[in-house]
Amino acid sequence: MAAELLDVNHLTVRFGGLTAVNDVDFSIYPDEIVSLIGPNGAGKTTTFNAVTGFLRTHAGSIAFEGEELAHLKPHQIAEKGITRTFQITSLFPHLLVLENIRTGRHLQERVTLWDVLFNTRRKRRVEEETREKAEDILNFIGLVGKKETIAASLPYGEQRLLEIGVALAANPKLLLLDEPSAGLNDTETQGMKELIRRMRAKSITILLVEHDMKLVMGLSDRIIVLNFGKKIATGTPGEIKANPEVIKAYLGERKGDAKR
Amino acid sequence: MLFVQYVLNGLIIGGAYALIGIGLTLILGIMNVVNFAHGEMYMLGAYFLFTFFSKMGLNFFLSVLLAILTVMGVGFLFEKGILKPLRRRSIDTVMLSMIGLSMFMQNIAMLIWTPVPESIKSPLPMETYTLGGLYFLPQRILVICAALLLVLLTHLLLKKTKVGKAMRATFQDLEAASLMGIKIDRIYSFTFVLGAGLAAASGALLGPIFTVHPYIGNLANLKAFAIVIIGGLGSFAGAVTAGLLLGVFESLGAAYVSSGYQDAVGFILLIIILIKRPTGLFGKVRQLR
Amino acid sequence: MSRTRTGILLALGVALIYPILITDPYFLHMAILVGIYGLLAISLNLLLGYTGQLSLGHAAFFGVGAYLSSLLFLNLGISMWGGLVLALCGCGALGFFVAKLAFKLRGAYFVIMTIGIAEVLKLVALNWVDLTKGPMGLTDIAAPQISLGWVTIDFGQKVPYYYLVLFFISLSVILQHRLVNSSFGRAFVSIRENEDLAESVGIDCYKYLVTVVIISSSIAGIAGSLYAHYVSFIDPGVFAFFISVNAVMMAIGGGQGTQAGPILGAILFTLIPEWLRIFGDARMAVYALIVIFMVIFMPRGMLYYASQLLNLGKKSHGR
């Protein structure tokens, strides 16, 4: 098996008296699509926030390609190659769709203040590159026609696509998607599924938090299940479906019907 | 002994500072309004005292009361006329509007009362009393007694009365308070009027001690903000403590360092607090956004 | 040639021949002030319009620039050119410290702190009489002369000074344009739009905030220096709250976060206080009403509402 891309060990995150993530271990391997599932409040988004540097960890290690991430700031973690989307739609609302994507490309733009002030050749080349790459991404996510639209005025489903586009612009190796299909209708969810597969085909490893069981089962190579902050199971979709612990945790929720 | 005298003087002025601070921390904490016009309530308190007492010859204590009530009325108009319509706007818009309002008030005051600084002669005897080696001016004793009384009354209001509880509930969680049936509009009005009244009281009490001119609100405002931030946003105890501390440090600073920089003491303390402990002495983590 | 390009060249053309068309010294004086305050407005617009941080203490940098430049001239005999450099560096350094201090505080806390800093500096200027002559202020701050062969340009005269200010404004407009249309500009705007998202794609918001504050404060410092050597007299009033407020009105009134906004705002808010003189003592009261009106009813600035009115087919671009 290839070396782990992301190796999380004994991760613990606390909020005051509440332990939201409790001694969680898991690994993600390159080119996988892994889903992180669990009932509400299980600690899934908290895990995302810890991995991407938005929350401090109280114990444990988060190693990405062998490097420890636990005390880095979000922008440093993005530099290492991990980006994410957020549970609540998170865009640059007043900017055009194209500008949203261009902003996402920040890490790839190696210009200094000198370059900018003196409008050097390098700066102009980088601007051109950014423009091209942004168009590529827009094509990839299917929003080329809307590139001059203001982000806040996009319909909800397209906003969610744009979010992924922005995260992609940073050229990540690992992409964390927080409930990408929340609020999407059937057609949009199908589109999202295909987009995720296309991203994996481009060698982007995907870790997603999801409540839509049909999507999870149909898309994932592996599934990690959390409940009350602890990992209770991990395995292939088939294994998880049959896992008694998992079924117990979801008792009261009908499987495959947890979509909002 | 001189040191104790300075501390005492500082506590007296600090008592008045506490009043402005309490008003502002309530407005800031409960209404989320950055009230840059708060200093002007202080200024109007002093000027209305001047009008009622020095110009119209009414009884001093009655004049103080009337001044406070008048400013509360003005505050009520501001809240209903300006703050309420702006409630959904961004915090920057409200801030800048209040700044505009503050400039407007200063200049209206200048037109009404002229820019010539006035002094209000205290009706109390001007001789100092000594007790245990310390000197007391009756006007200053009045200030500290009145300040203590008002702080106590406000504390009781917040803790014991229905409206006080509603105010505290609104501070903690606006949505929950409104869902519980608390009429937020009324609470906001009440809070603003209360804050204006306390600031006016401060202005009226300090009026006879310092000169009165249209721009005294500026410094009062900045000090009030310093007190609120140092004490902790929305914290009653914090505003009182910070107010007293500011008074004492200003007094000591003027005595031992330099009187010219007296007004800078507040900012220096503010900057120290912002670096060391941005939530303030008693504050909980809450962002002003 | 694009419409914007034509507009800019036209404006530049008018600006270049302005002193030839208008010889009345009063209007030249106004134009110079518009230029100096325009620099201040551009500097504030970078901070407020692009990164979205409101500063109500920009008079601090303006005043420090004025005093540094003046003191360098009066005490060490170094001409305005040196003063400009010192103002740029000194205010840049001050900006660095303010930024480090202020990054932890946002929104209203930052605003209050900027006000406080300007007030403290005013108190220092008032009380450090040995250095600043206190409320008496500094006088005879002369502008330099340059000898080019047989021609001497005396910047103590209005016309040459006008072109000097025009030069600096043009430089700033170019700088602003280049910054805005770059990864730096996009980083600045991302801070205003969504800081968490910006961080998540690798934008170090702290670094960019510090950068913009330093650039902003440096330009404001240059404005202060140009002011001092033009009016040749300064006092602690250069730290006045009114200057900070008026600068904000320029940045907002013209149109926040746009490139033409600050210039338009500078024209408006240099002229408005002048026109209000007809109200005599009520002048500032009317000004305050204008502030309230603009802030509430025209938060997007004149440019936006004017273009809506005239229905120019402008690409709807950000704020």
List keywords for this structure.
heterotrimer; A: about 260 residues; alpha/beta; Rossmann fold; 2 domains; 6-stranded mixed β-sheet; 4-stranded antiparallel β-sheet; 10 helices; C: about 325 residues; mainly alpha; ABC transporter involved in vitamin B12 uptake, BtuC; 14 helices; 2 strands; globular; disordered C terminus
Question: How does this structure look, described?
Answer:
The complex is a heterotrimer of chains A (260), B (289) and C (319). Chain A is an alpha/beta fold. Chain A is built from 10 helices and 10 strands. Chain A has a 6-stranded mixed sheet, with helices on both faces. The model of chain A has no long low-confidence stretch (mean pLDDT 90). Helix content of chain B is 72%, strand content 2%. Chain B has a two-stranded antiparallel sheet with strand order 1-2. The model of chain B has no long low-confidence stretch (mean pLDDT 89). With 319 residues, chain C is mostly helical. Chain C has a single domain (3-310), classed as Orthogonal Bundle (ABC transporter involved in vitamin B12 uptake, BtuC). Chain C has helices at residues 3-21, 25-50, 59-76, 80-102, 107-127, 129-132, 158-180, 183-193, 195-200, 205-231, 241-255, 261-275, 283-297, 301-310, and strands at residues 145-148, 151-154. In chain C, strand 1 and strand 2 (151-154) form a beta hairpin. Chain C is globular and about 55 Å long. Classes of the chains: A alpha/beta (260), B mainly alpha (289), C mainly alpha (319). At the B-C interface, helix 4, helix 9 and helix 11 of B face helix 5, helix 11 and helix 13 of C.
Quote the CATH topology of the largest domain in chain A: Rossmann fold
N- and C-termini, Cα separation of chain C: 25 Å
Helix fraction of chain A, binned, reads 25-40%
What Rg of chain A, in angstroms, do the CA atoms define? 19 Å
Under the CATH scheme, the architecture of the largest domain in chain A is 3-Layer(aba) Sandwich
**How would you classify the helix and strand content of chain A by structural class?**
alpha/beta
Percent range of helical residues of chain C: over 70%
Q: Structural class of chain C, please?
A: mainly alpha
The strands making up the biggest β-sheet of chain C line up spatially as 1-2
Q: Could you state the order of secondary-structure elements of chain A as H and E?
A: EEEHEEHEHHHHEHEHEEHH
- Name the overall outline of chain A: globular
Portion of residues in beta strands of chain C equals under 5%
Report the order of strands and helices of chain C: HHHHHHEEHHHHHHHH
Number of domains of chain A: 2
Return the average pLDDT of chain C rounded to an integer: 89
Largest sheet composition of chain A? 6 strands, mixed
Low-pLDDT ranges of chain C: 313-319
Q: Please, how many helices of chain C?
A: 14
- The low-confidence parts of chain A are none
